Amino acid sequence: MAKKAYRVRNWKQYNKALVQRGSINFWINEEVAKKWYNLEINPSSRGRPKIYSDIAIEACLIIGRLFKLPLRTMQGVVESLFNMMGIKINIPSYTQICRRQQKLDLKLSHAVKGRIHVVIDGTGLKVFGEGEWKVRQHGYTKRRMWRKLHLGIDVSTQQIIMMELTDNKVGENKKLKGLLEQYKDGYEKIGGDKGYDSYDCHEQVGQYGAISAINIQEDAKERRKRGNGELLVRDEIIRRIAEVGKDQWKKEVKYHRRSLVETAMFRYKTILGNKMRARKIENQKIEALLGCNILNVFTRLGMPESYTLS
User: Fold this and answer.
1) 116-263: which CATH number, 3.40.630, 3.30.420, 1.10.357, 3.30.70?
2) Beta strands in 94-240 (DSSP E)
3) What is the pLDDT of residue 121?
């Protein structure tokens, strides 16, 4: 089967969105400068009071994350930006930024509301280790380390509405419940690949009153026959596939929309890189969260509207 060719119909608007992504004024504005210092100092609290606000630390980290800068270089870039903007304020040192990063109280930012169709998957991000050429030539070694980024994408807007960073040994099906709890407005469909195919995952989908669009194994067997108690979501999928075939079932539940989460992971690695700069897991979680927030901003600025060429 020949690969379909696509063309973007809103190229003019999408091109403007791509330009806007790199606008420094968009990321650091006057409102950020006004809230740069920490004005809420509690004299009764123990320890040295914070000089810079969380917004200041977050703004520096966003610039570093967006342009893939080491901490020292990031400090110099932010100082230069404020000098060019004519704003005379001090910049936190790279050591302060690193120390404050793991304690930032950040949330995943998106503009999605109401019941949605969500698709979920996980991907690996390298912490440190050999390059791909060395691996191809000599194989893996024990010093190679990865993290796993779990993402949930709203099908309609393609925004990231749930995320979690874990050790690479954590399976996808173990994190489904925690991911689904991050969104409160409910689900219409929840999709995933065979990595989420377990009775527990399908039942968790059913608890939300949603349709399970999670693919099942080829040799899947029913656990509980009809009339022997409460129906199981996975058993109902097995029966439906036996009736109409897997291709028709995939069309009914729109399983093909799962490719959007793979596209989002590709977008993450293309724009922000496939390697984490932080070394502590707490800092890495904030780094991944900032990356997801940046991608959501890009998505809201504008996305391509494509159509197939006949």
Assistant:
1) 3.30.420
2) 116-128, 145-154, 160-167, 187-192, 211-214
3) 95
